[in-house]
Amino acid sequence: MHLSLLTDYYQLSMMGGYLKSGKLHQDSVFDLFFRKIPDQGGFCVAAGLQAAIDYIRGLSFADSDIDYLRSLRIFDDAFLKYLRDFCFTGDVMGIEEGTLVFPGEPLLRVTAPLPQAQMLETTLLNLVNFETLIATKAARICEAAKGGTVLEFGLRRAQGPDGGLRASRAAFIGGCAATSNVLAGKEFGIPVRGTHAHAWIMSFSSELAAFRAYAEAYPDGCTLLVDTYDTLESGVPTAILVGKEMEARGQRLKGVRLDSGDLAYLSKETRRMLDEAGLNYVQIVASSDLDEWLIHDLRNQGARIDTYGVGTRLVTSYRTPALGGVYKLVAATDDSGRMTPRIKVSSNAEKMTNPGIKQVWRLYNDDNLMLGDVIALQDEHFAPGQRIRTRHPSQYYERKSFTRVARVEPLLTPIFQGGQLVYQSPPLPEIQRRARAALGTLRSEHKRFYNADIYWVGLSERLFDLRERLIEDTLGEHVTR
């Protein structure tokens, strides 16, 4: 889909105003970041970078776009000509997909002439916010499953076709083993899985006839839905009968699926019945409005579930349907052409921005566990063994020093330079492995679903001092006392 006009009107109006104000070549730096972790969680999983890359590479305005904008009778010919010739010439730094990220950290850093950088805001937020939100939700669900397989079954409840497609990709990054979305399988190479619906059972004269027909049609991957009529009195016993018939033919029933009722009780009874019948290899799949909270409770209740099919509450991030990402100007050239830091000041400390061109550093201990992150100015560098002092971004008297740092890792990597793509995106399974490995380096207290411990993200002392100085200067210059 051509996305050039997938933007807010005010982006175009500001761009036109920049041209009229002589800011066509004013260089600027914007940070894309979020302020809060969804569901009061302890981490987020970065996603959406590939979509952002595809958008920037394809950003141009077709004749039909220009004709539409002209029909609005708002923009002058000079601005329309600028759009007709539009080409992104800037730099983009980004945090790779599958990396754990936290509030305040730039997921993307855009350096470009002001009108170009402004043009990217809405669409980058749309792409990165959504995929990061869903990848995070999927990672939480997979954490709750504790090694059980999680399948993404959310297409029918997703927010439109593109929402369904992007959710499938992001859910795979977050750890889902497969999707029911066939187009996502084709586009992204994600394994596709599924069973059958209740309609299959109801279309036959009996549950037994339906199960036998499905086993005959798909003997190598037969999972039977057992709750159409009565799970324990009809569905499971009939599935056992068909499973034994398959054994006699040298085949194996793969699984049974529970889609309603008390999943903890039903799964334990189903496991008992299968094992007593000698079908201990048959897996139990559960679905029915699952999320991390319910899966966590099911496991605490001793549920015997091997695979979880998760749909609505995953692809819509049901409890927190949006990631509050923002895109803020943090530096721009002044009248003399010198790049200077810029800051947004707010009475709400959480909404104050961190000025200047920055890098994010991740600190690890000897056990390869994450100690904390440091948001620092671009020219700052940290090394193992160095004493690293940090300040809390909003709690002014809270600070933390790190003295036993075994490894440091800069998170922002070059994506575009001079408008040219310099980053090679890894295959999607590699991104998933990165996310899984990253979660293995995060302490368990940050992964709790209840009262997750807040992971430390601090400002370097230099950045903190710069921000304090700019706040004082800005208030003195702009606030009437």
Fold and architecture overview:
- By secondary structure, the protein is of the alpha/beta class.
- The chain has two domains: 9-135 and 320-478, nicotinate phosphoribosyltransferase (Alpha-Beta Barrel), CATH 3.20.140; 195-288, Aldolase class I (TIM Barrel), CATH 3.20.20.
- Helix content is 38%, strand content 20%.
- It has 15 helices and 21 strands.
- It has helices at 9-20, 49-57, 63-71, 77-84, 114-145, 160-174, 182-188, 198-202, 207-217, 231-248, 263-276, 292-300, 312-315, 428-440, 461-478, and strands at residues 27-34, 44-45, 91-95, 100-101, 108-113, 149-152, 178-179, 223-225, 255-258, 283-286, 307-310, 325-333, 339-341, 358-364, 370-377, 388-391, 399-402, 407-410, 412-417, 420-421, 457-460.
- The strands form four sheets. A seven-stranded antiparallel β-sheet has the order 13-12-1-5-3-19-20. Strands 7-6-11-10-9-8 form a six-stranded parallel β-sheet. It has a six-stranded mixed β-sheet with strand order 17-16-21-15-14-18.
- A hairpin with a 5-residue loop joins strand 12 (325-333) and strand 13 (339-341).
- The radius of gyration is 26 Å and the shape is globular.
Give the helix/strand layout:
Layout lengths: L8 H12 L6 E8 L9 E2 L3 H9 L5 H9 L5 H8 L6 E5 L4 E2 L6 E6 H32 L3 E4 L7 H15 L3 E2 L2 H7 L9 H5 L4 H11 L5 E3 L5 H18 L6 E4 L4 H14 L6 E4 L5 H9 L6 E4 L1 H4 L9 E9 L5 E3 L16 E7 L5 E8 L10 E4 L7 E4 L4 E4 L1 E6 L2 E2 L6 H13 L16 E4 H18 L3
Parallel strand pairs: 6-7, 6-11, 8-9, 9-10, 10-11, 15-21
Antiparallel strand pairs: 1-5, 1-12, 2-4, 3-5, 3-19, 12-13, 14-15, 14-18, 16-17, 16-21, 19-20
